[in-house]
Amino acid sequence: MLSSLPPDALFSWITNAVAAFMQSPVNDLGMPGGPESGFDPPLLGCAAGDDSIWESYKEAVGPYHWTPAEAFALAYPDDPARPSELSVISWVLPQTKLTREDHRKASKLPAEVRMPSERWSRNRVLAEPRVNAVLLRHMQELLRESGVQAVAPTQLEAWSGMPSERFVFSSTWSERHAAHAAGLGTFGLSDGLITPAGKAMRTGAVVLRAKLPPTPRPYTKHQEYCLFHTSDVCGKCIERCPVGALSPRGHDKKLCKEFLDRTTPYLKEHWGLDGYACGLCQVGVPCEARIPAAPHG
After folding, report:
1. Phi, psi at 43, each rounded to 5°
2. Which of 14, 81, 154, 249 is the most exposed place for a label (fewest CB within 10 A)?
3. Is the pTM of this model over 0.90?
4. Which region, left, alpha or beta, applies to residue 272 given φ > 0 means left and ψ of -120 to 50 means alpha?
C-alpha cells in the first residue's frame, strides 16, 4: 500500500506515475498527420495542505477559493481531513517546441489577422481535455486504488468559474495558484504562470491524504519572475495581444474573452475544432520556455 511508503518514496512514486502517463500514447496532439506529443515531459512540485498560502488565496482570489481541506471534504464528506494531513501535488505540462514555434509565427502576424496556430489550437481544444484532464482523473483513481484518498479539485462537480469584482473571472480552485503554492512558478503581466519550463504550459493538481515533503518556493513575491514587474523592462506580451487586452496596467479579461469568442468560428472553419484558443501572449517573449534572467546593471 502506498500509504506505508516514506514521504520521499511516495513523492517519487507519484512523479514516476505522472511521467509514465505522459510517455504513453494518450499524450497526443491530435494532428491529422499522425501521432505527435501534446506536451513535453512534466515538472512536479508539492505543497503542504496546511500551508498558510491557501488561506491567503481567499483574500487574493476570493473567499470562495477552496483550501485543500475544503476540496477534500467535498470528495470525502464522511471522512474529512485536517489540513495537516493533506498535500497537494501539482504538475506543469510544457508546450512542445513545435507548438511554440508555430504559435510564435502566428503571434508576429499583423494584429488584424492574428489568430492562434493549428498546433496551439489543437492543444487547447483536444490535448487539454484528452491529456491533462485525463491525467487528473488517472492520478486521482490510481492513488485511490493504491490506498491513498485523493481528489482532483477541478474534476469535482462543485468546481465552477466565479464572477469577481476585482478579477472579472475566477474560480473555486485555480490550478495556476496551486502550482504557485507548490514552488512551480510566479505570475506575469498577462496573468500566465512563469515556470522553469516557461509560460507556454498547462497545469493540474491533486489533493491527497498523505504527508509529502513540500517543494521549496524559490521566490517571495507572486510576480517575481516577471521582468516587467521586477525590473520595469520587457512588456513583450503587450505587443503580442491583437486586441490590446494587455497594457502596463495589466490584463483586461473582458477584452481577452471577446477575442477568445472570435477565435471559435476560426478554429471551426480552418481545422474543424469545437472550441476557442489564444495564448498569443505566451510565445515570442523572454518567459516563453524558461524563467527569464534579470537584466544586469
Report:
1. -115, 140
2. 249
3. yes
4. left
The answer to whether 197 and 290 are in contact (CB under 8 A) is yes
**Residue type at 87?**
S
Going by their DSSP bridges, the two strands 168-171 and 246-247 should be labelled as unpaired
- Angstrom CA distances, 90 to 83, 101, 139, 296, stand at 17, 26, 11, 32
Tell the residue number behind the cell numbers 473582458, with chain if given: 254
Residues 6+ apart with CB under 8 A from 261: 276
Distance CA(181)–CA(159), nearest Å, equals 19
Please give the distance of CA 171 from its chain centroid, rounded to a whole number. Answer: 13
What is the rounded CA–CA span in Å between residue 204 and residue 93? 8
Burial class (CB in 10 A: 0-12, 13-18, 19+), 77: exposed
